[in-house]
Amino acid sequence: MVKTIQKVGKRMLYFAYGSNLNMVQMKKRCPDSVPITKVRLKNYKLVFNRVADIIKSEGDEVEGAIYEVSPRDIRNLDAYEGYPRLYTKVEVIVEADNGKSYEVFVYVMVKKGLAEPQEYYYNTISQGFKDWDISKVTLEKAKNQSKIDYKVDSFFTQKYCDRCGGSLKKGRIMSMYNENCICLSCKDKERQEVDYSDAVEAEHLEIRKGNYNYKGIKG
Ligand SMILES: [Zn+2]
């Protein structure tokens, strides 16, 4: 998404919103890490898909914190997060209470869904919220929503491709041109379009400007 991440020498800024808010756990996993500040990520929301994840959601925000991490820490995080199969990394812009914004990287789940977290895991996160003095409102809401048959967004629940009408069983992805939920073969076709790189560039530009809800060049 955003191409440049704020770098501090070879160190980078990592946005934690789940179990790594827990300072004891974070220090164990990432011995070089330094806690920086509490921040919020706008137009996303916290959800549980067994483990914590964030999804785009206009008007919502994810509260979390940033840590400065070393290349060694990042390798440890990648292993813990099951990168790149379970989680992938994206770059986002987060904002501190004083209005300062930071370009950071964050792990998001590759496959979206909702499922209840295990108690031990939930308690680890809950302690993390306490460590950073973050209100637990969004955390509790995410837990409650994971229990019920909560309809996240038609994107995650629809069965057929918006473009070809085919099944989405093998995977779904949002079009780079608009907000269509499309199948993977339609995505492959889309990548062949002559203006595909323009569409990608436009999306990157909007995200860099802080517009996470850009509808695409044909949206
Ligand atoms: Zn399709």
Record keyword descriptors for this entry:
219 residues, alpha+beta, 6-stranded antiparallel beta sheet, two-stranded antiparallel sheet, 7 helices, disordered N terminus, binds zinc ion
Descriptive overview:
- The chain is 31% helix and 30% strand.
- It has two domains: 141 residues, Hypothetical upf0131 protein ytfp (Roll); 51 residues, no CATH class.
- The chain is of the alpha+beta class.
- The two termini are 18 Å apart.
- Zinc ion binds next to helix 6.
Strand content: 25-35%
Approximately how much helix is present in the residues?
A: 25-40%
User: Which molecules are bound in this entry?
Assistant: zinc ion
Tally the beta strands.
Answer: 8
- SS-derived structural category: alpha+beta
Return the average pLDDT rounded to an integer. Answer: 87
What's the CATH superfamily of the largest domain, by name? Gamma-glutamyl cyclotransferase-like
Spatial gap, N to C terminus: 18 Å
The sequence of SSEs as H and E is EEHEEHEEHHHEEHH
Radius of gyration of CA atoms, rounded to a whole number: 18 Å
Strand order of the largest sheet: 1-2-4-3-5-6
* Form type: globular
CATH architectural category of the largest domain: Roll
Give the domain tally: 2
The main sheet comes to:
6 strands, antiparallel
CATH class assignment of the largest domain: Alpha Beta
Determine the CATH topology of the largest domain: Hypothetical upf0131 protein ytfp
Count of DSSP-assigned helices: 7
Stretches with pLDDT under 50, minimum 5 residues:
1-5
